[in-house]
Amino acid sequence: TQLLEQSPQFLSIQEGENLTVYCNSSSVFSSLQWYRQEPGEGPVLLVTVVTGGEVKKLKRLTFQFGDARKDSSLHITAAQPGDTGLYLCAGGTNSGYALNFGKGTSLLVTP
Amino acid sequence: SQTIHQWPATLVQPVGSPLSLECTVEGTSNPNLYWYRQAAGRGLQLLFYSVGIGQISSEVPQNLSASRPQDRQFILSSKKLLLSDSGFYLCAWQGASYRRDTFGSGTRLTVV
User: Fold this and answer.
1) B56 touches chain A (CB under 8 A)
2) By three-state DSSP, how is residue B95 classified?
3) Is A46 left (phi over 0), alpha (psi -120 to 50) or beta?
4) How many other CB atoms are there within 10 angstroms of residue B105's CB atom?
5) Which residues 6+ apart lie within 8 Å of B44 measured at CB?
């Protein structure tokens, strides 16, 4: 099982601040997904990246896949209270069916 | 469009009682189906996955079992629940052409 380490585990910031969360592994993944989960609900997919060095933007969120496809980052610009939630990264390989999930970064954005 | 249904949303069961959680998918055929458990709002632990009817792979040996009686139906069961089975259970499906999981809304199970 490939391990995905997410950092930081917890992050509390004020509205308007920028932040970056990281997802690192010693293994290579064919694809990497980022999800956001709110309490009591299932995770919702934000983005899938598949190419080393790929950068995707979703409004104020910027996702990057490392050149070696072992790591990824999520940058949020001008965070808002609605960004609060658990951010999970998950990696997929060509040899298995299931995704490997990190433990998540719990983000709290206060007004 | 594809949708996934999972029920019940919450469940409180006594120790030693049986369990049956159901998940159904609409709008797709032959999906890969998954059961995950999540503890305390943290990472997801894969319990079972299925690539077809009657095909079940177990990732973690435990007090639970899974079945796939129909193409778009996935069931998580237990004959006798333990306190340690408490948690947030999530069903997910994955289309054949996409490496991503789409999740149901989850079941909060509390074993008392």
Assistant:
1) no
2) coil
3) alpha
4) 14
5) A43, A88, A90, A101, B36, B37, B38, B90
> How much of chain A is in helix, strand and coil states, percent to nearest 5?
5, 50, 45
**Calpha distance A16→A97 (Å, rounded):** 39
**Is the Cβ pair A104, B43 closer than 8 Å?**
yes
CB A91 within 8 A of CB A27: yes
pLDDT digits (tens, 9 = 90+) for B24-65: 999 888 889 999 999 876 788 889 999 999 999 988 868 899
Question: B41 is written with which tokens?
Answer: 């709002």
- Chain A environment of B43 (Cβ under 8 Å): 88, 101-104
Contacts of A1 (CB under 8 A, 6+ apart): A100
pLDDT one-digit tens code per residue, A47-90:
999 999 999 999 999 999 999 999 999 999 999 999 999 999 99
Instruction: Single out the residue of B91, B105, B77, B75 nearest to residue B34, CA to CA.
Output: B91
